[in-house]
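stuck on whats below:

***
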Amino acid sequence: MEEKKNIINGGDVLVKSLLEEDVKYMFGLIGGQFLAMFDAVYKWGREKGINTVMFRHEQAAAHAADAWARVTNKPGICFGTVGPGATHLVPGVGAAWSDNIPLIVIVPQVNSKFSDSFTLQGNLDQVTMFKPITKYQKSVRTIEEIPNAVQKVFREATSGRPRPVLLEIYEDAFLSQKEESEIHIISPDQYRCFEKPAVSNEVIQKSLEMLLKAEKPLIVSGGGVSRSGGWEELREFAEYLKIPVMTSLMGVGTISSKSESFIGTTINGPGLKAGPEADVVLALGCKFSYIMGHGAEPFWRNSQKMIQVDIDSTIIGRAKPITLGVVSDCKQFLKQILETAKKTKKVEQRDWLDVLAKSRQDYISSIMKKATKDKIPILPQRLVKDVLEFMDEDAIFINDGGDIACYSIEQIDFYKPRPPLSFLQAVGMGHLGTSVGYGIGAKLAKPDKQVISISGDGSFLMNIQDLETAVRLGLSNLIFVIANNSAWGMLKSGQKLFVDKHYIDVELPEFDFARCAEGFGCYGEVVTDPNDIQPALERAKNSGKPAVIDVKTAWTIPDATKLLGSMGIL
């Protein structure tokens, strides 16, 4: 009797290929050309460990995939249907691209027989549309190409500087059928390298000598340390040589605030002293973006020596003159320089570190003057303090918004140390509206962790519809805190500071976010008294539902807004 052949289609092949990459969730919206993929998930994919997560808007789905990648250090998967679904993904993909986050962006394309025929959702060159915000683009027309295409996009997303990639699959490939034995899918370790290349001993020795000779050395830890997982090596190296460490926003959590070497986040407070006074700077995976004063004077000095380590050679020397450039994975570099440093005598004390520690304490004291006030309307500094104090030590914190994000950054390292990969903000693009998508993606990635977001009232409304997604998924201990000052606060500040208080299109009507959240099935509460913030957070935590806390705050101008304005950014 002839053996029955197992016939599979392109949807089956795609899902099998993604399972080989250990993909658990795909975030997006269903579409007609995706029916074969969804059918594969329905028939057998869930049993194998992969599932789709339906969102109400593709932008939020892309944010969820972004958060998944930031929290797990594995690529996130997002998808949207051909045409409008693809265009809706663009904002979320753009935010991930700007922060070097690996995403696999999957979009279908209309059947080839309808090419250039003005069919529904057709005639859009999606590959060209995504080129500016993806590292690599692959378009597939046949079922046989799918396995190799999946391997290519994963290789590109994860190698070198990680970034989003695009996989476009024509409906022809989804609908095509083949005998399963004719499709060959190999494991990741068969097609991509997981080991990082070693740095030459000469470069390691030269780097170490520069740091040992420095009177005022400084380490700047950026996103390259986060993505490489090099935080333990960083802490041990910095503490062995008593070198102060400042993190960029993408590097938050790469060294604990409890470490004797930690001095702060970005160029706030002690960073304003450390940056220009350091004589040797070791920059680890840091781009010197606007967050770090563009690496320019007066925040830094062109005369100071700099060792810049980055996996991407095009970043080295791009913002600030260098003394030594090192193309390397940050963890690999730190591992090697630590081993070499341990052959030298341990540094027992450094006056420079003591000076910066004192500067940090002075900075904390200055911020706490407002953060402890009981004023009504609630000062944003007070809201941030109460939220950060309330959070679990291993919580994931999402910072979404303009002016409220500035206040969060001021205090992010004051209370409880941030663990690695636990701080989420769309830094490079300055993107608003991430909180709900980030919250869902982070909670699915780490279901046992508390996830808390602070956002502005303007930014939160951008993707509020996906509160329904959070409710449908049954997510709890997921808390969205809204600093509601009825304004596009940062821009209102700009209009006050720089255009003679000509307020236009910056004042927002009052809105009851708590009642709106309850309509979606969330726990909702309005807070007007600062002494009610933490009790409200406790009730939200114990509600067993996604929760929204609408906190009525005063509109005030962050120091960071003034700083950005002086730099010509705002």
Remarks:
- The chain is about 40% helix and 15% strand.
- The domain at 372-566 is CATH 3.40.50.970 (Rossmann fold).
- The CA atoms of residues 94 and 132 lie 9 Å apart.
- The mean pLDDT is 94.
